[in-house]
């Protein structure tokens, strides 16, 4: 197996959700306290899908998206994997706006050196990842996401599928999908996978 790891960004590398909820609160929107994936964030705020989509687009193209906090010690374990020869490709359904791409790069560069991510593929907000993942079909590369449908797509394309656990995806019971709670668990799994590959 090539030492390349494919990964989502929001809800995996960065804590998008906490920042978005705080930003919405400043604008007078109150969360119900029931966490949802960003593609269903309208349910958390009791607003229409279209209004939530517009707010999400506004947030993703704002400077706040350049200062998102690392999620579950991603900055520690990604750096450790990088030092051990792994490279990363980010596939993120953030926005198709160039300014959003710029802020995403700034955020990544804040915590990871320029050699860590060999590519960052920015798709429109909420975009399906089938086309982006098809490039790696049958490669068995590890793909990490917090959205069940994206992980299921990766599985159907012959990738090694990993789900970062959140309250909104705990109902995923597919035994072929590895579930992890944090980056330490993910690091241990990746090391085990590559140990087996060498053997």
Description:
- The chain is α/β, with parallel strands linked by helices and 199 residues long.
- The protein has two domains: 4-15 and 69-198, Rossmann fold, CATH 3.40.50; 16-66.
- The protein is built from eight helices and six strands, in the order E-H-H-H-H-E-H-E-H-E-H-E-E-H.
- The chain has helices at residues 16-26, 41-45, 49-60, 74-83, 98-111, 130-134, 148-156, 183-198; strands at 4-7, 87-92, 117-122, 142-145, 160-164, 178-180.
- It has a six-stranded parallel sheet with strand order 3-2-1-4-5-6, with helices on both faces.
- The longest helix has 16 residues, at 183-198.
- The radius of gyration is 16 Å and the shape is globular.
- The mean pLDDT is 92.
